[in-house]
Design goal:
Helices cover 55% and strands 18% of the residues. The protein is of the alpha+beta class. It has two domains: 37 residues, no CATH class; 101 residues, no CATH class. The radius of gyration is 33 Å and the shape is rod-shaped. It is found in: Nucleus.
């Protein structure tokens, strides 16, 4: 029987397991522990970041960082079972986590467009600078050809 770590964070549950009495053993057998697992598959990974919390709620955790764009997301939400019911709170938590993942992916695509535009502008400036250097070198080479000529009436 697999018991989620997050369930063991509750003092009541821990005491029930550690008591070792006949009553506690019977109570442990009656609980459907798999309900407290969030075994929904997200592509080929489990939905990470949605788990049961000892406060009696489903917790959504979402942390993402993009140092290049100086953008940091740290989200922690609780969907209370007392307010929404066990199954509805679990569904809402999973849905919210998926929404956060989708919005992050959407943001990555937007950043890709912005980064591509910046790169295009940077390359355009680099090319303009290179052409200006070539023109300056060409002007310098023409100035060198006129060395023997008199300029401005000097002898």
């Amino acid at each position: 029987m697999a018991i989620p770590k997050s369930v063991m964070a509750s003092g009541y549950i821990r005491r029930m397991f550690r008591a070792g009495t006949n009553e506690s053993r019977e109570l442990i057998k009656q609980v459907e522990w798999t309900k407290y697992l969030c075994g929904v598959r997200e592509s080929h990974f489990l939905v990470v970041g949605v788990r049961w919390h000892p406060s009696g709620s489903w917790r959504v955790q979402f942390k993402r960082r993009c140092y290049e764009h100086n953008y940091f997301v740290n989200c922690s939400c609780y969907f209370r079972v007392g307010q929404w019911g066990f199954d509805r709170a679990k569904e809402m938590a999973i849905g919210y986590r998926r929404r956060l993942e989708y919005e992050w992916a959407e943001l990555q695509e937007a950043w890709k467009v912005v980064d591509d535009e910046r790169e295009r502008i940077r390359l355009k400036k680099r090319e303009a600078r290179r052409l200006a250097e070539l023109e300056a070198q060409e002007m310098m080479s023409h100035d060198g050809d006129a060395e023997g000529l008199l300029i401005g009436g000097e002898e």
